[in-house]
Amino acid sequence: MRIAVMQAEAKVLGIERNLDAIDQAAQRAAADDVKILLTPELFTVGYAPYVLRDSLDVSALPDVRERLSRIAAQHSIALVYSLPEVTDNGWLITSTFVDHQGEQLAHYQKVQLFGPEEHEVFIAGTNPPASFEYRGTTLGMVICFDVEFPEVVREASRRSVQLLLVPTAMGRGYEQVCTRLIPTRAMESQLFIAYANHSGTEAGFELAGTSVIAGADGSILAQGGPDAELLAADIDVSTLATIRTEVPYLAEARVDLYAQWSSGTSAGK
Amino acid sequence: MRIAVMQAEAKVLGIERNLDAIDQAAQRAAADDVKILLTPELFTVGYAPYVLRDSLDVSALPDVRERLSRIAAQHSIALVYSLPEVTDNGWLITSTFVDHQGEQLAHYQKVQLFGPEEHEVFIAGTNPPASFEYRGTTLGMVICFDVEFPEVVREASRRSVQLLLVPTAMGRGYEQVCTRLIPTRAMESQLFIAYANHSGTEAGFELAGTSVIAGADGSILAQGGPDAELLAADIDVSTLATIRTEVPYLAEARVDLYAQWSSGTSAGK
Asked: How many CB atoms lie within 10 A of CB B2?
C-alpha cells in the first residue's frame, strides 16, 4: 500500500489556504496511487498554541472537518488530519482518520503534551493509541511528542498496529528525532512509522521538515529535507512476519520481568 | 570524568593474547587520564558461544578475573570486563566492574540473550540493570541485546544511572544500532551510554565495530569506524539537570497511564 506524507508550512489561522494545500497534496498523491495521505499536527489551523487559544473561531471546526472529509472523498484517498478538539474540560490536540469515502474510522487525542505552550492551552488525552483496520492493514495513530516515548509505541504494537501514522510539529535543532529516534521506534517495536512534520516558520516557531517514513526493520524508506515536499513510500506489511522473526524484539521482550523490576519485586536478588 | 571504549578483535580462546590487548588498552587509556575503560562482550575469551561451550576451560576463569583486577590496579584505572559465569543452573553472560584498585564494585548477568547460539549455550539473567556509585557518578551496566529494549534502559534510569556501560558483540549489517538506537536510548532515558563492540571476525562472525559514546541529549560524543581503536570522551554529569529540564522525558513520561493501558484497565474509553 502506497502512503504519502505532506510536509509543508501552514499559515497560522489561514484555514482556507491550508485546506487548499491539503486538497492539492491529496490530488497529487492520488495521482501517484497513494492510498493514505498523512498531514502534520494542527496543519489546518497552524501550529501556534497561543494564537489558537486567543483567536481561533472554534465554531468553524465542524465545517472544517466536513471539508476535510470531502477532500478525501473527492480524491478517493484516505486522509489523516489534525485539529484542536473542544470539550467541556478543555481543548485537546487530536488526529482523525477518514477513509477514501470521507468516513471517519478513528480519532485520537494526544497524550504527551510538549512544552509550556501546549501545557497551557491544551489538556492531555488518556486513551491508548488508536488502532483500526483499513484495506487489510492495522493502522494506528499517535501525535508528535507521544512517539518519543517508547512505551506509547510499544502499546500501539501490542494493539497489533502495523503502520503508525504520526502528525507532528518538530522544531529545528531536533532533527535527530526524525533521523534516529523514529527509525529506532520502528525497529524496536517492529512496525512501520510515517511521521509528517511542518516546514518553514509558524508564529515565529521554526519547523524542521525532515519528515520520515521508516520501515519496520529500522530502514528509512523516505526522508524529507528542510523545505515543503510530498514524500511517498510503499508499505508491504507482508514483510512483517520475516522482520519479526529475524530479530524477535516483540517475541523476546521480557515484559513480565520488566514489570517485576519496576514494581520492585525482583530487585536486589 | 573521562572514559574510554576499547574496540578490538578478540582471539577466540586466546586468553593470554586478549589479556595483553586489554592491558595495553588500559595503559594507553590511563595515560590519557581515562578513569574507566569499557571492553566488549566476552572479549577475554572471544565472542563464540559454541566454541566456548565445547572448548573453554572454565576452571581458568577465577584466575582470569584475578588478572583483570591486577590490570586495573596496575594502571590505576577502573575496568569493565565481560566473561561467562558458570552456575549450577547453567552459564550466563556477565559483565563486571572493578575499580582502580582492582576491587569488584558490581556484577551483571545479561537478561536478553540474542540469537540461537546464545540461547543454546547460556541461560538468561533476571536481575535488573546494575546500579552503583563510583567517583561521584551513578554507573550502570547491561549487555548487548539488553540495551535494544527500551524498558531495560528505562529501568536503569529509574535506578538513577547517569552513565550506562554496555559491552556488546554486534554483527556487521546492524550498524544502525550503534548510529541510531544507542543515541536514541540515551536521549529518551536521559543518561550517557558507552557501547563497546568488537571489530574484525571471530569464529566466522563478522563484527561491526562502530562503538559509540552517546550524550544524554542524544548527541554522539565518539563513534568508532569498522576497525580496532580506542575511543574516549569526557562525561559531565553536571549537565544532566539541564538536559532533563529542557526536554523532560523522564519527568513527563506518564508511566501510570502506560501501565493502565497494558493491563487493559483504560482501553476503549
From this structure: 13
Q: Which of A162, A168, A249 has its CA nearest to residue A212?
A: A168
B/e letters for A117-131, b = 16+ CB within 10 Å, e = fewer, are bbeebbbbbeebbbb
Read off the C-alpha cell for A207: 519547523
* Predicted confidence (pLDDT) per residue in A4-27, tens digit: 999 999 999 999 999 999 999 999
Beta strand residue intervals within A90-211, DSSP E: 90-98, 104-109, 130-134, 137-141, 163-167, 192-196, 201-202, 205-206
Nearest to B257 among A126, A150, A255 (CB): A126
DSSP A11: P
Instruction: Tell me the nearest-neighbour CA distance from B127 into chain A, angstroms.
Output: 7
**A262:B155 CB<8 A:** yes
> Is pLDDT at B265 greater than 90 in this prediction?
no
Residues 6+ apart with CB under 8 A from A57: none
Choose, out of B144, B254, B260, the residue to mutate when testing the contact with A (most A CBs < 10 Å): B254
Domains of chain A: which residue ranges?
2-238
* Residues in A touching B179 (Cβ below 8 Å): 180
pLDDT in tens, A55-93: 999 999 999 999 999 999 999 999 999 999 999 999 999
Interface test with A, best of B111, B255, B261, B262 (most A CBs within 10 A): B261
CATH 2.30.180.10 given to domain B2-238: no
